[in-house]
Write a structure and sequence with these properties.
Blueprint lengths: L7 E6 L5 E6 L3 E5 L3 H11 L6 E5 L5 E2 L1 H8 L4 E7 L4 E4 L7 E7 L3 E4 L8 E5 L18 E5 L5 E3 L11 E5 L5 E3 L12 E3 L7 E3 L11 E3 L7 E3 L2 E2 L5 E3 L13 E2 L5 E3 L20 E3 L7 E3 L11 E3 L7 E3 L12 E3 L7 E3 L10 E3 L7 E3 L10 E2 L15
Parallel strand pairs: 3-4, 4-6, 5-7, 6-8, 7-9, 8-10, 10-11, 11-13, 12-14, 13-15, 15-17, 16-18, 17-20, 19-21, 20-22, 22-23, 23-25, 24-26, 25-27, 27-29, 28-30, 29-31
Antiparallel strand pairs: 1-2, 2-3
The chain binds 2-acetamido-2-deoxy-beta-D-glucopyranose (4 copies).
Length: about 400
């Protein structure tokens, strides 16, 4: 496809006071200041054929009506409404045949859908005044992505999405979400593959609610004030679980059966111990415990996680780290990050088996480094910056 960046521009003064500005290239048109009530014929007569998208900047309407959207759908597949403070409501008709609707920087507070709609595949709403997830979204039977950001939504009821059988991705990012519930009957199975709840106000997350999301691959609840993670969680699909930047003091994985989980990120929390039963997560490849309050670490707590590649323990308060216990030998480990701790000794003398392992151990107070019997050499143990505070550092090698 050739992207033509030269724009055809038109500025017309219509019968009303507002001036409509109109710019098009081969792919899209931007209309600024259109009032659907008065300027609709204008839009039809000047719109080129076969454009993909129409971009309404400062659309002057409080209610975006089905008749208007249906007419737009005859001209293009994708509609964007931006910087339109008068827009408060949008109504999507069951017959609307648009692929995507994106609404950003409006006063949108109501979204209705007047019946089962098969056409719409993406709905994006940013910087709106929505306080609830519109229940009518259940009628969007063809929707694959729902992405709502920076809007004051407080509750997510997963039951809304029991009938959206194509929904893969649900993102509620930087909304004001305080609770996630699921009022659905047992027969509802959710088709979600990605659930992104970053940057909300969640303080508790009950993973059991997600049991009906049998296809879920990725869950992100980073940047919340989560203190408590509860519920049993059984899922064969999930590979990524991100809980970075929360306030979790204790995490217990004993009720988790997540046979495919390969990435667990719990960095920047308040953990004082390695999560209990973490050894059940047999497929784990990346474990990030950076930025917690761990004081002691023993590699045996990870025994059996034979697929683990990257272990990040940096930015904790470790005064001891037992890494060379033969019972905790992890055959595939590629890197251990242990920078920014309070270690004085690093004993890697039993890690002879791991020729490709890299250990990053800078910013500790390591005065005693034991690399005897190992295939590791100082090139793979990074100690910079060295901060040994003893005068006579013993370097046993
Ligand atoms: C929707 O629009 C597409 C592309 O213009 C067309 O192929 C399809 O038949 C339309 N569907 C309906 C139900 O009108
Ligand atoms: C662990 O998380 C921290 C903070 O989020 C990040 O900077 C670091 O790169 C991560 N480590 C790995 C090995 O991905
Ligand atoms: C490192 O650990 C091995 C095995 O546990 C031990 O024999 C050795 O003395 C230790 N090295 C130091 C410097 O403590
Ligand atoms: C070491 O710690 C200092 C002070 O906390 C910090 O500024 C620096 O970036 C750290 N260096 C590394 C390699 O993490």
């Amino acid at each position: 496809m050739v992207f033509v960046s030269s724009w055809l521009s038109l500025g017309l003064r219509t019968t009303l006071v507002e001036a409509v500005n109109f710019k098009c290239n081969l792919l899209m048109c931007i209309l600024t200041g259109l009032n659907p009530q008065h300027d609709r014929s204008f839009m039809i007569s000047y719109m080129p054929d076969n454009i993909k998208g129409i971009f309404f900047d400062n659309l002057i309407a409080s209610d975006v009506k089905p008749s208007f959207l249906n007419q737009v759908a005859l001209l293009a597949r994708d509609v964007t409404i931006v910087n339109s403070p008068t827009v408060r409501k949008i109504t999507i008709s069951r017959h609307l045949n648009l692929t995507t609707i994106a609404i950003s920087k409006t006063s949108l507070a109501t979204v209705s859908v007047d019946g089962p709609n098969e056409g719409l595949t993406q709905l994006t709403i940013m910087q709106s005044l929505l306080t609830k997830i519109p229940v009518d979204l259940r009628h969007l039977h063809g929707v694959r992505l729902v992405d709502i950001r920076n809007s004051p939504i407080e509750t997510l009821d997963l039951a809304t999405f029991c009938t959206t059988a194509d929904l893969h991705t649900l993102r509620l990012v930087r909304t004001k979400l305080r609770s996630v519930v699921n009022s659905a009957k047992a027969t509802c199975s959710l088709t979600l593959e990605e659930l992104d709840l970053k940057g909300n106000d969640l303080s508790v997350i009950n993973l059991e609610l997600l049991s009906s999301c049998y296809r879920l691959i990725s869950l992100d609840v980073s940047h919340n004030p989560i203190e408590l993670v509860t519920g049993s969680f059984m899922n064969r699909a999930i590979t990524k679980l991100h809980m970075t930047e929360n306030q979790i003091e204790q995490l217990n994985c004993c009720q988790w059966t997540l046979s495919a989980l390969d990435e667990l990120k719990i960095s920047d929390n308040m953990l004082t111990q390695v999560p209990r039963c973490i050894r059940q997560l047999k497929n784990l490849k990346v474990l990030n415990l950076s930025g917690n309050y761990l004081t002691h670490f023993d590699i045996r707590s990870l025994a059996g996680l034979n697929r683990l590649l990257n272990l990040d323990l940096s930015n904790n308060r470790l005064t001891s780290a037992k890494l060379n216990e033969p019972e905790g030998f992890l055959a595939n480990l590629k890197s251990i990050e242990i920078t920014n701790n309070l270690l004085t000794t690093l004993n890697l003398s039993h890690m002879a088996w791991l020729p490709s392992l890299q250990v990053f151990a800078g910013n500790n107070s390591i005065c005693i480094l034991d690399l005897s019997h190992t295939a590791l050499d100082t090139s793979r143990v990074q100690l910079e910056p060295i901060t040994c505070e003893e005068n006579h550092a013993d370097d046993i090698n």
